[in-house]
Amino acid sequence: MRLIFLLFLTLPVSSQIAAASDGNELLSQCSVILEAMDGNKTGNATSREAVDATRCMSFVSGVSQTSTLYEASGKMSKPSVCGPDQGITTSQAVRIAVKYLKEHPQDLHQKASMLVMYSLMDAFPCGTVSKIGR
User: Fold this and answer.
1) 62: exposed, middle or buried (C-beta count within 10 Å: 0-12, 13-18, 19+)?
2) pLDDT class for 82, splitting at 50, 70, 90?
3) Rounded CA separation 87/91 (Å)
4) Position 42 in a domain
5) Beta bridge mates, 12
6) Alpha carbon distance 49, 128 (integer Å)
7) Given this model, what pLDDT does residue 1 score?
């Protein structure tokens, strides 16, 4: 009974932190955090901006980490993302996703999770020589 009550209490919060459904929504959410990271945001963030920034960072991080874990599990015959050995930061993954979304406006109607994967695959293709550290 306590568990059901606790789950009921978290419903309003979880609905506010819902993931972006498509590229349009993700780009909107991530633009807020990107402005803040670049120092272009002056003043305090509104509660809406804070929620959007949290949504973006959590979503992009979740997709990136899920991809890494799935590939590490050995269930894929060939990796789809070949990033640096030390991994990438969430802020770097957000920048990669936003860059991809801005460069592919014709795809913004697609699922946000797929677009984040495409952005990582585009940024870190497999079978190429890495430019990192050169």
Assistant:
1) middle
2) confident
3) 12
4) yes
5) none
6) 38
7) 39
Q: Please give the tally of structural domains in the chain.
A: 1
The verdict on residue 133 lying in a domain is no
Q: Which residues of 69-100 are buried (b: 16+ CB within 10 A; e: fewer)?
A: eebeeeeeeebebbbeeeebebeebbbbbbeb
| Separation CA 82–CA 68 (nearest Å) | 9
pLDDT at 131 over 70: no
* Residue 3 domain-assigned (yes or no): no
Whether pTM > 0.85 for this model: the answer is no
Asked if residue 34 belongs to a domain, the reply is yes
Please say if the pLDDT value at position 5 is more than 60.
no
The predicted pLDDT at position 76 comes to 73
DSSP alpha helix (H) spans, the chain: 2-16, 23-37, 47-72, 90-103, 112-123
The CATH number of residue 81's host domain is 1.10.890
Least confident of 9-13, 57-61, 63-67, 93-97: 9-13
